[in-house]
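Lecture notes, unit on protein representations.

Consider one protein chain, 445 amino acids long.
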Amino acid sequence: MIRLPQARYLLFLALLLVPVAIRSRPDGQQWFETGINRGAPAIRIAVTAFPPQSTDSNLVNLTGEFNDVVWNDLDNAGIFDLVNKSYLPLSPPTGPGDVVFSKWTDPPVSAQMLAFGKTELINGQLVVTAYLFDVKNPANPQVIGKRYVATMNEVSTRQTAHTFANEIIQTLGGGIPGINLTKIAFVTNRTGHDEIEVMDYDGFNQHPITSYGSMCLTPRWSPDNSKLAFTSYASGTPQIDIYSLETHHLLFFPHFKGLNTTPAWSPDGKKLAFCSSMSGDPQIYVANPDGSGLQRLTFSPSVNISPVWNPKTGTEIAFVSDRSGSPQIYIMNADGSNVRRLITAGGDASAPSWSPNGLFMAFNWRVTDTGTYDIYVIEIATGRIVQLTHDAGRNEHPTWAPDGRHLVFESDRTGTKQVWMMLADGTNPKQLTRQGENWNPNWSN
């Protein structure tokens, strides 16, 4: 029997799941920029439009798509200073012999790197020849030189553009892979019910995963991106379901008594932490992905919810609890020991998301009762806090990208809840969804 009053639990659940001494980030906060892999000076790069080598209308259209995606991917990366397109020479090079280095190194271009190439229609396929040159090193300029073959359609063309951009980002960005081929799962009401959908990192290719005709919430990617765990109300009370993106079927996970919600995968994919009221008050449990090996981790007579693992070590779990009277973020060892409060300045703090390097926690925080929810990041070792969103509606449920340079979150700054992306220092916000209301995003690994 559930000891916690149902109304209190549902109110707290709504606060967390549905749209919960501070320093705003001044320029030059080097400790934070370095921690999110953006401490080095931006690399000035010129990105030309790849010219199609025939007038075939399909080739011309797909080439335009390719050029737009490469530009946007590099602009989103957060490590480049892209040369304004109006500064670029009118005749872009298509091969190494066409590069006149002074055109790219001299003002107003003043580039260090140059991305260029061409597209062709060969045997019914899109063939992209792409280069990255260090134009400051004319004696040995070629950094990347590759040929990509794609199907003549939009999806394949975009994937090719993402792949080329990723190679540039990884090559010039300290070996950290780009995020351009990653996915984002989120909740949407565009069908009339709250269902799970998945999209490319830039908002393209949005498509449904669930069609329950009931409420589905809190999607969470497995470490290998082959499964999504989420909360389903299909049985009438919240339960954990696991969907295979390989077989497109549900995998077995037991429906425990009471309310079960907010699943979270361990970094090795061998454990699933979640909230359950099977023993009374909502507590944090951990189990194997088939539900076996069930272990209770928290024993506080309060609501304990929203677990998230330290992705770097797998030895710690952060979670939200109202044991102090309002929702606050706590950290414990993965066996439930050594519980300590992370945010001590009051207010309502929830929706923790651990950075890939284990150094930071992103979360949403309403600092005062009269305030609104904004996105913050805390450096766990020192307690230093940075506010990322300001005066732009209600902002909640941040999740880190696997590169540690980006966050996805939900915001109602345009009047409805939508999914947004930004650099992890709060700059360059971009709206990813527009139809219906969309929230609770989670970035793939």
